Amino acid sequence: MSAYRKLLRALPALALGVALLCGRAGSNSALAAAPSYSEDEIEAAFVYHFASFVSWPEDSLGPSDFTVAVLDDDAVASDLERMLARSRLQGHPAQVRRITAIGQLGDARILFVGDSDASRLKRWLAMIASRPVLVVTNQPGGLDDGSTINFLVTDRVRFEISLAAARRARLNISAELLSVATRVEGSPIGSAVPCGIGLPRARPRISCSPRLAAE
User: Fold this and answer.
1) Average pLDDT for residues 93-99, to the nearest whole number?
2) Within a domain: 212
3) CATH assignment of the domain containing 159
4) For position 17, what pLDDT does the model report?
5) Against a cut of 0.85, is the pTM above it?
6) pLDDT band (50, 70, 90) for residue 42
7) Range(s) of the domain holding residue 128
8) Centroid of chain to Cα 195
9) Is residue 162 domain-resident?
């Protein structure tokens, strides 16, 4: 099974359902959204399951709940609240925290930022650049503003990844997730992602040469 199909198969039926599992194996065409699901539901489902493809520094995960903070997107927050109810992420009970300013981030391990003013977003993300937080955005130039994963929405939902942002935050992104990103910043098309970068300790070593181009 391709990495992308594995990711999509993990998505809860609430968000995507069986329809999203069709399409060419290993291709971003598998991201085509079924008409009955909104962009918000799809993005919330991906945010939920990104946690399974990322590892955080051991000293950053205490005994508390695994918190996903959502800034400037009530629809995604609501979808995540339904998905995270009675769920566990990284072995911890999961919860959603709706915030209106970066100072409310607290101990959240994932931050999703919806549509936000670019100048404000860049300033906010600079404030937490070195903290072990997976920042996911949904706006043009999100990676340039400092996010680790940025959604690209055209006729379907895709995403791009910044290895530089991941390194600053001391996050390891699995080669499985890198292999299905539309673009991986910091690893030019045609080159291999250095082995050992982005491979969670708990996962077996797999190919270190992700396919970076779109379909």
Assistant:
1) 93
2) no
3) 3.40.50.2300
4) 33
5) no
6) confident
7) 40-185
8) 21
9) yes
What CA–CA distances, in Å, run from 67 to 80, 102, 168? Answer: 11, 14, 20
- Which one-letter DSSP state was computed for residue 115? S
For 35, other C-beta atoms within 10 Å of its C-beta total 7
Residue 170 pLDDT more than 90? yes
How many domains does the chain fold into? 1
Percent pLDDT > 70 in the chain is: 67
Q: Which two tokens mark 116?
A: 């936000």
Structure tokens at 25: 């194996």
Residue 18 has pLDDT above 50, yes or no: no
| 84 inside domain | yes
- β-pair partners for 66: 94
Query: What whole-number distance in Å separates Cα of residue 49 and Cα of residue 55?
Result: 12
pLDDT in tens, 23-37: 323 344 444 444 466
24 φ, ψ to 5°? -65, 130
Any idea what DSSP says for residue 123?
H
Cα–Cα nearest to 11, from 40, 36, 46, 41: 46
Compare 128 and 5 and report the one with higher pLDDT.
128
Query: Is 135 inside a domain boundary?
Result: yes
Inter-residue contact 159 to 148 (CB < 8 Å): no
CA distance 199 to 175: 6
